[in-house]
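Think of the structure tokens as a kind of shorthand, similar to the way a musician reads notation: each symbol stands for something richer, in this case the local conformation of the backbone. In the example below we present two proteins back to back. Begin with the first one, reading the sequence and then the tokens, and try to describe in your own words what changes along the chain.
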Amino acid sequence: MDVKHSTFKGGIHPPYRKELTKDKPLKVARTPDQVVIPMSLHIGAPCTPMVKKGDTVKKGQRIGDPNGFVSVPIHASVSGQVVAVEPRLHPNGQQVMSVVIQNDGLETLSEEVVPKGELDNLEPAAIKEIILNAGIVGLGGATFPTHVKLSPPPDKKIDFVVINAAECEPYLTTDDQLMRVYPEKIIYGLKAMMKVLGVDKGFIGIEDNKPEALEAIYQAIDDKGKIEVFSLHTKYPQGSEKQLITAVTGREVPSGGLPMDAGVVVSNVGTAVAVSDAIQLGMPLVERVVTVTGSAIADPQTLMVKIGTSVNHLIDECGGFSEPPAKIINGGPMMGIAQFSSEIPVIKGTSGILCLNEKDAHVEEPSACIRCGKCVSVCPVKLLPLYLSEYSLRGDYDTCKKYHALDCVECGSCSFICPAKRTLVSSIRVAKREIIASSRKGN
């Protein structure tokens, strides 16, 4: 196998614990009796419900109308009857307007779910329109609308499309499973995005702890002159966009910039599969792969799940809790969001449900900084976390801004490596929010 090897400077090596699910086959989760689909499944303006209580809907039917450019439509993930349109608990901790559908079990498809034609015959604008209408967003967790990412300003020339297949978050094996099961779809989705942007070169970056996925992707590439695979050193946060771009292309995203400032668009593995399904099958984004795992789960698994399925349903599917969970996290342990209830639905950004027992969830008490500098040595964006944290705790956000706090990718490497167990990233996150809030006020 002729692949290149690379990585970035900095980073950490947390316990990966992917062995809990990586050798188990991808399984389709049981269809729930009811789905709760929030009208906020992406970054940007929430959708407006297009159905009302009592309506009958079909799978793939549009039920949420987008509001603005940074917004995408939302579709029914099952067929059945709408039993409520009301605020429900969202993984972000807020009550969000949601459409509740009682599943009739018939999987009746919407008439709009039809193949959109051959990729070679589709114009770039038509492909982008298909992606928009399918409600596709970044499935790595950010949920940024893909059609927006594929619409760079005219002065930003894009040279490369990079598929982010690193999956560096511990525990998660969703991208690994997709690459082993659907390598052709990933290549197809990458080609579609390259065509939209008029790009002749694509890359796929995969951490070297996924040898089966690496082999499957490599074998699926039919034009190795245009698409190359990189075997990346297993290191966190290898899947962070800026670090991935540096490792694969050798380019650096400038401070305060975006990947497009380096001439690159980055997309997740799951997003590429969704693009493929939208074109080849006409199927909008109504399901995704979720890893349900952790020390408190009886039978950890990676599942194909319909959007709107409750987390409790998935936990039951995995044999329930093996012991009382001390913490439930939406996502991975490094960048995921702790939940105060499991009564939440799977959304487009749900890559994993991590349930930890008391031992694994225990957080040690922080002590005084010993100025060891380890947080500086591991920071992937070359910041000074100990100073940024200190300035933030003092409320000196102007100095935080001066020392580029907004460049922090919130990966948590500094907190992980800190021998004093200081929650550095939390205080830096506060500083970022204060700086952004101040900027919006015009200060």
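Once you have a description of the first chain, move to the second and do the same.
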Amino acid sequence: MEGKDIEKRTPIPERPVGERVKDFEEVSLGYSKEEAIKEAKRCLGCSRPLCVEGCPVGVEIPAFIERIKEGDFKGALLKIKEKNLLPSICGRVCPSEYQCESKCVLGRLGAPISIGALERAASDYGGEAEEESNGPPKPKRVAVIGSGPAGLTCAAELARDGVEVFVFEALHQLGGVLRYGIPSFRLPRAVIDRQIQRLKDMGVRMEGNVLVGRTIPFSDLRTKEGFDAVFIATGAGLPQLLGIKGENLEGVYSANEFLTRVNLMRADLFPQYGTPIKRGKRVAVIGGGNVAMDSARVALRLGADEVYIAYRRTEEEMPARRVEIEHAKEEGIRFLYLLSPLEIRGNEEKELICRKMRLSDELDESGRRKVFPTEETISLLVDVVVVAIGQRPNPLIPSLEPRLARGREGEILVDEEMRTSLEGVWAGGDIASGAATVILAMGMAKKAAQSIKKYLGISSRR
């Protein structure tokens, strides 16, 4: 490591706070080519790259970084795409600090390589040239239910090897949680659109406004519709609720509804678009994950003067990405710790009553310190409350098909190859794991695609 600057990580440029809170344009500007090359040159090129072990889809990280060092962004992009067909998305929303970057040797000595930002740079500057070949057409048809990260990944993996793939999406626009769940200031819509167009160019057929289980009976896919296999990737769109008095008041939203109204239905542009949303001057968001951060920052961009995040533990236990917490703080979101909601009262102006909590030294099953209620309560006067405490698997298909084995949280149970209890049916992503990350959903989809190809008697090129 002699001669290497291991302490200084190349900063990722961002839009100024005062400018970005006024709109939904992307916050992170990403590296310039020169900045990306400078950051890439920090990579040690380890003979045993632990970073690869930290990547759920096994991207050969040192190999693509080596190409960026040489200024070969196209080569870097092609190397990434050998394992990951959504680099422009993963480079923006993957929690790389907890995955590949957490394994980087430089992290022990200073700051790890900024792998996520380099992945984005490869995508931004790698051009449109692609290496994928559909291969000889195969007389096999696969139905993919859901167009989120798992559905898109499985479709791409199958299409690469010549399988005829149909993607059915319940919403009117494609992209699943990438579109309805993640605000455009973190993931621009043009990035999603380009990715979907790439799949269409590969021959994947996609159709929106098709709710499998209602528009098409699930059981018909393999019988009347003639699909040789089915992959269920319907995600985790069922919000968890607090179960407290006042949760049904007007102006109290689940984060799922709040974000969908803005991200998908463009309530931020009401009445130009037909979906309204209550714009509170004082907004309280309940939760501590990325969805809570997104909800708070969306509320700010809708015109709120004060936005609070109320969380039952402390910042140390928050599951949100560090960068999202920092962005929220920079933008003026106020963090209130050790609070658990008890009741919501009122109409236009609401009183959110919370019980104060205390941390113990005892750890729970997640490894975080347990919290216990105290006798003290506090009240917050707000106009809007957003509940962002998690999502559960979409229940429609599992409820219609009793032969699908399910877990305690309603998730579809799968084996190590993502096979369900039904012959010819696979599942992956949040419907099988519960709410998780984009890259974990993609990893499950890749496994499922390999298993489906084996089932169909198709040899994989990878």
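Compare your description with these statements about the second chain. The CA atoms of residues 41 and 69 lie 6 Å apart.
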